[in-house]
Specification:
This protein is mainly beta and 326 residues long. It has helices at 5-32, 251-254; strands spanning 44-49, 55-58, 64-68, 72-77, 83-87, 97-101, 108-113, 118-125, 129-135, 140-144, 150-155, 171-172, 178-182, 187-191, 198-203, 217-220, 226-229, 235-239, 245-250, 262-267, 273-277, 287-290, 296-300, 309-315, 318-319. It has a single domain (42-319), classed as TolB, C-terminal domain (Neuraminidase, 6 Propeller). The chain is 10% helix and 40% strand. The chain starts with a helix and ends in a 7-residue tail after the last strand.
Amino acid sequence: MQKPANDIARKRTLLSRVCFMFLAFLCCSLSRQPLCADDVSVRHSFLGVGHANKAVIIGEDGQVEWKFNMPVSDGWVLPNGNVLLALYGTKGFPNGGVVEVERETQKIVFQYQGQQKETSTVQPLPGGKFLVAELGPQPRAVVIDRQGKVLKSTPLQCQKKNFHMQTRMLRMLPNGNYIAPHLFDFAVKEYNPNTGEVVKSFATDERGRKKRDWPFTAIRLKNGNTLIDCTNGNRVIEVDAKGNIVWSVTNEDLGERLFNDACGAQRLPNGNTVISSYRSKGNQVKLFEITRKKKVVWRFSGMKSGFHNFQILTTNGKPQKENTWK
């Protein structure tokens, strides 16, 4: 027996409405999914450096704008537009070294050959000088001029069994002292560069050394606190002048696994913190920005590998003016 036409029409109408509502819900969900925790209005360009990625400048659109094909551990875009890089050991630089590269031509306009086993970091100083960390049997911080002459040498007090894990992200502080994260010593030390004396030290092993809270980056903030990236411990801590932890963040705080060997960090002028996850691969997040309340507002998942260190260059088209906090 054939069903009435109006009954069939009603069922078709009902089915169409159900399908429409399902498709609308699905589209809405998919559109929100990737951005559920992030502020879509935040866009950064940055310099990223590492073993696999070498040195790259990524635009706010996420595309590679510039690349220098040598393995790099630290780097800066200078005010003149050139790029200053600390090199891992490579052909022509067996013990690592420092180069300044013209962006347009990729011409090396300055170079310094590392004099020990590794050259881990470089920082531009006023007057055309550079602060360099050399790792090896006698780990040291050196200040060099543009002729490559060593103007000052300060011994670093850290373990000497594993050269590679002696120190990273050595920086000169506004007071002229040096701050050095010593990974296998589980300590961030502040040095008097003239005497080599350790004037302050912050331990990072209060959770026990099995957590591998190796300090990689240490940033002295304007309020006197120190921000510390704890690499394999997958956390960032902020300590006061006495070494007390006043703020920290881990994957548990974020509710997702964004920390994956936290190496580089940068504190932005707005108080947010950008963190790199060096061991991230494929589509995993390589860089992410969090607020003081630990909300993720930006993330970068491009490139095939993570970054040892980075420098945020612009945000929404405007240059970052305070790029020394890295």
